[in-house]
Write a structure and sequence with these properties.
mainly beta; two-stranded antiparallel ribbon; 7% helix
Length: 134
């Protein structure tokens, strides 16, 4: 048994996020485990770029309201207490609504090369607005 002290919260990189997003990592992959986990906080209007995960991703919302959207246009409006799974290789984005903050615990299984995330292009304002209409 081991206590892990609270890690510093850092601003998420602009190369992979739009708006103000803050990340507090709390689990890194330490063999034999490949689990990587962090608390991610999105301010209103903030979101990830399009991305995918080699082994999928689990998001558990801890506060607020937000979206997960995939390339097929499926929109999931998630609220505190909801858990969403994205399949391996499924391109998607997630973030808060335009009027609410949203926090979630993001969990991925890493790969031999890192956390298995492939970052893609930013979500356009039009794509983001469309999620609010559905």
């Amino acid at each position: 048994m081991e206590l892990t002290p609270v890690n510093d919260t850092v601003k998420a990189p602009a190369a992979a996020f739009t708006g103000d997003v803050y990340v507090t990592p709390f689990k890194k992959a330490e063999p034999p485990s490949r689990l990587v986990a962090a608390l991610v906080r999105f301010t209103p209007g903030a979101r990830t770029n399009w991305h995918s995960h080699a082994v999928g991703q689990t998001l558990h919302v801890t506060e607020g309201v937000g979206f997960v959207v995939n390339r097929d246009g499926k929109v999931i409006r998630m609220r505190a207490g909801d858990t969403v799974w994205t399949s391996p290789g499924e391109e998607h984005w997630h973030g808060g609504t335009n009027s609410t903050c949203m926090s979630h615990i993001a969990m991925v299984e890493g790969t031999d090369d890192g956390d298995g995330t492939t970052w893609l292009e930013p979500v356009t304002d039009e794509q983001y607005a469309t999620a609010h209409e559905l």
